[in-house]
Amino acid sequence: MTYMLTGRPREHFFEMEVFGDFWYRPGLSFVSQAGQLNYWQTYRQNQLAQFMKDVATLPVQQFDLIISDFEPVSAWAGKLKGVPVLGCGHQYAFSENTPVAGDNWLSRKIMQHFAPADFAVGQHWFPYEYNVLPPIIDSTLKPKEKSGKYLVYLPFEDQQKVLAILNQIKDHQFIQYSSELKPQSRGNVEQKTACVHGFKQDLMAAEGVICNSGFELNSECIHLGLPILTKPLSGQMEQASNALALEQLELGSILETLEPQAITSWLDNEKTGSAKPWPDVAKALSEWILNGQWHDVQDLARSLWSAQYLPPNPPILSDTVDTANTSRAISA
Predict the structure, then answer these.
(1) Is residue 144 a part of any domain in this protein?
(2) Residues 35 and 128 occupy one common structural domain
(3) What is the pLDDT of residues 94-103, one digit of tens each?
């Protein structure tokens, strides 16, 4: 098995030892500034000529299957060279039944063509479609004794602005994580450099989480039963849609603007939820991939969704999901 990572400068990847001697290509990524997606800078900074060259020269013919988590270099290389592509990721869960917000013509085209796949397996917090599984997370995460602190992870925001706002909420203690920060205490805020192990330890002991609307961290919060205040990256359809889904499923609250009054209101009214542990999706998916029946994902989805994983008052339940049971070649 060979792994490939793309989407950011190679030096910005950390704690990647588990992937061994992985391949690297620049790939494509979005550029944001102060909580806002910047389309112009995204266009300027992405190396389209390099991307096309990497697609053309990637030696994928040696593999039987390409597994892409919405990674475009490997997906397009497989499409152009006739190697089967299995798309596994949150983005492949978007269909006509999935809550969508902030979309436009460009965002829809990106979702359709960014990383094409012959077989698609989505992940979401609810079975909106027959090919949607629960999230893949670190299933070893368990709730710990509460620390009395709220974890704050807003990587797309101005970190000094985040600190200034948190310092105004003096009645609460916060842990602020970012790759831009150095470990230090600033009033009621403990700042820490982004890392995997330390972050997970603080997450398991947190009172609640204030974060952007990415998929993985919010999935971990649901798994642990943590209250969520989520701020979608402005101009990014996927994050706006995630925030909408969290609100519809009664799993989190949306922070429209980064200001102390809105955060204080949530802190005063947030309710502690109960843990909704996700199943071991990674193990089941791995076994399904090895079985080779990639065209048939419905039985796999049915086996993983059960009543304890579904939130109250779901907005929709696809007819293709069994309601009776509901009450890597290249990986980027």
Answers:
(1) no
(2) yes
(3) 988 999 998 8
